[in-house]
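Input set for joint prediction.
Command: fold jointly, output tokens.
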Amino acid sequence: MSIRFLFEPIALPVVAGVLALLFRREQGKACAWFCTAVTAFHLAITMYLFGKEASLTLPWGAFGFEFSLKLYQFSGFILLAAAGFGFLISLYSTASMDGRRFLNQYYAYFLLTLGLVNGAVLADNLIVMLFFWEGLLLTLFGMIIIGQPAAFSAAGGSAPGGKTAVKAFIISGVADLCMMVGIGMTIYIAGTMTMSQIHLPVGAWSSVAFIFMMIGAIAKAGAMPFHSWIPDAAVDAPLPFMALVPAALEKLLGIYLLARISLDLFVLNIHSWLSPLLMVIGCITILLAVMMALIQRDYKRLLSFHAISQVGYMILGIGTAVPVGIVGGLFHMINHAMYKSCLFLSGGAVEKQAGTTDLAKLGGLRAQMPVTFICFVVAAASISGVPPFNGFFSKELVYDGALEAGHTWHVGWTFYAAALLGSFLTAASFLKLGHAAYLGKPAADHSKVREAPPAMLIPMIIIAALCVVFGVWNALPLNHLIQPILGESRLEGHTFAGWPTSLTLVLLTVIVLIGALLNHLWGAKRAGSGLGAADHIHNAPVLHPLYDKAERRLFDPYEIGLKIAHFIARIAWGIDRGIDYLYDTVAVNVTYALTAGIRKAHTGSLFAYLSWSLVGLIVIIALIMGGI
Amino acid sequence: MPALLIIVPLLAILALNLPWMRLMNRLALWVGLILCLIQAFLVILHPDFFWQAPSLWLGHLLLFAPTVDYLSLVMFLAIAIVGAVALMVCRYSVPSITDPAETRTCANNRFLVINLVILALTGMNGVVLANDLFSLYVFLEITAVASYILIAVEKGADAFEGAFKYLILSAVATALILAAIALLMLTAGSLSFTHVRLAMSASPHSHVVLAAVAMLVVGLFIKGGLIPFHGWLPDAYSAAPAAVSVLLAGIVTKTTGVYTLFRIVISIIGFNASLQTLLLFIGAASMLIGALAALGQSDFKRMLAYSSISQVGYMILGLGTGTILGIAGSIFHLFNHAIFKSLLFVNAAAVEQQAGTRNMDRLGGLAEKMPVTGSTSAIGFLSTAGIPPLAGFWSKLIIIVALWQAGHIVYAVLAILASLLTLAYFLSMQRRVFFGKLAAGFESLKEANAWILIPACVLALITIGLGVGIPWLFETFLLPIRSLL
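tokens >
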């Protein structure tokens, strides 16, 4: 196949993105359809590319850097998925973003993001990958800041959109810096920049390099503690951005890199300490984020915490380093991208039609927006792991992996337990969300709410349908998309398609889900509304003060980092004042005191001057005659 | 034939004083300028027939056979440049009196000043050419006598005070030098540098020799205006007429004090530990105290005078290292100092003449009205403070590097600190005189005329050119100084 096709996934969106900037303000609609057409064409090309293998190496710049791209099973799959989401969400945006300001910028960042993600996925050279990876910071910042036009006003960065954009930029920047260090170390240890040639055993230094690169990868995917910009962005940024970037593309990219470094670049195995480290990070992310999700009272904010929580399953799965766990993690990645973007899109539809995402003001939308409701139910069931939707199968695989890996340690079952508890809380919080938004009494002023326009419904329907397909016919994605990534040598002939092998685990899952339902019903009855169904957890003795502090962002690593930075800045300021005092006051006063003394000595008296000379003469004669 | 550098100016002075007063009045300036230019071109083009050929019969008028080395050439060039500048400032600031009758009664007239300047130049050429102690002494006195009169030429109370202080302290110096020469004569039986050197190395611990060395060194310290022998210097520099200040600060004290000290230390005494300690200490003291004192001045010329003390300190510090690099740096600094300090005194002359005062507290914002003076002054002070890429930076850098290499780290640090002080007082000078808002009363101020702007621009260009051309200069000009040792 022709080499130039390899450039297309990068060049087409980037060039189109730059062109999108040429649209004038009143041409927003044209710009939207231009973007949709480009993404559709792009999707067609990635479909053509999928399953093919090709590589390309060009000399690039100085110092022996090479611009090398490599297309193979894994990158082709990510490319295809990204293109699919790009097309659907672009289509969705034509309706949902209609009439907003800065549309040309929005679509430009949209396309640039797509192109940069493709570049990072295709890159076969660590430096090239870093180049595209860092480029994403730019579009991330741009996408968030245009969500709040006030950010452009005279107030500048003090507007929430500006603040959130800066927060996202700094958190991602710090993580990217870690990755840069990791890449530098990896290149040094491996002696090459070509990713397909690096296979490092886990040693002392290479594990440090791995951790640095892992930080970059999981931070991109949104794992704790690099998550805290996502809930803020959910409120401030345009909604399709949430569906596209944190829900879909960043998960694809982050987990792609995590899988690459765990499978290819470093030879991770169950006996190294890196594997349990990843699993611990995964479990903590699952639990803490879902706990936060449970108490949210805003549709989008609640979803954003799940976007963090679900990453935990993927990290847990890949961290197990056993085939079943890795397959589960990767399968969960694509499943999550689907149901989470579908959920965000449903949130966008609600926001567009009802004018708010505050759960306290919503209710009873089921009758007015039936299609949206059905899509929501499918996606919520998927994320909660209800059989036979896709989330159920990928979670079961992750459970399998966690248990298999856990055999190595005495308390290995805790990983499974944590994952299962996460599932319980996920189900509980989605029952609460669905109950509060779609069921219950219709809110008074929402009587005129109508179903969303087709351009918004079609993407939701397609994604929801795929959730069902990937669940019921899970052999299709597993055999054709996921398992080839690991390769026959790792799978050793196993296949993970079909119904889960362990009936016990399935039973446990079902019991947990029923438990979640009962818990919800009890809580809703106790509080009198769907929204209050989780209040008994929120108000539990130990949890309540913790929740309070978390809501006040006392646990936000960004805020803590800012406090530390302010503290250091104050110390530095004090030191600076001290040095200034030394120079401006002490040094100057000493100098002027000396000057005054010298002036006083110079009276103009010839007698004095002669005496000085005489004394000087005597001393010098004494020195020379005594010294030589 | 280098003897012509003494004989031709002497003959020129004689010729200028022939009876055709009116004609001579007009010719004097041009004669002086042409002499200076010829001298400068002789150094720059370096024609062998002049420097290498044996003396003609004229040369026998001298009591000694002049010798020339790199150090002398640098001095000749500096003397020629500063001399020409001083003459041009004369043309600008000293009134011309053409009536022959009045010329006799009024001392402050251009013709007289120009004659004395040429005489001082002759004396300095002689100091540089001399290779025996007695001739050296004679030429020192010629220069000094011309200087006393030049300082006093305006006849004010200040002028007399400055001249008197210079006269008295110089007399002390003369007495010391003469006594030292007598003692050395006693030991060596001859006064030529080579003989004295041989005699000294024959009996290095003789008390007579040591006393002579001490007195000689102190005498030259007084001439060079080093701390604590500097009492005469600020008064003399600030009281002298503008043109004379340029000459005195730029070259006279540097030739009679610093160059002579270099020559005597290098050619006769040689380096030893206690002499080096003395030089380093006196150098550092002059450098720091001069700079601190300059910081407290409000008189433009007095500040420049203290700055001169400070800069001479650098030169002595470089000599004190006793290394080739240090001496090369010092000689380079001496030359640079001749350029930038003359430049600053030229600017001071312009300010004094145009604004009528040198008190920096009453001046301000003059750059608006006198842009050329203001900007050349900035170049001059930046070079003095050692800001790259101006020439002053390189010479200071070489001195500091030499100090560091020779292990005198404390002195190197002090030299850097003094550089900061230099920048401090000159920045305050520049701000008080040239920058900021125009001070009241100077609304109708005019820029000085070409007689002062041309030398200012030329000197500024030289200081920039030397700084930018340092790689070339270092190879062709500084490294050959090695042959001195």
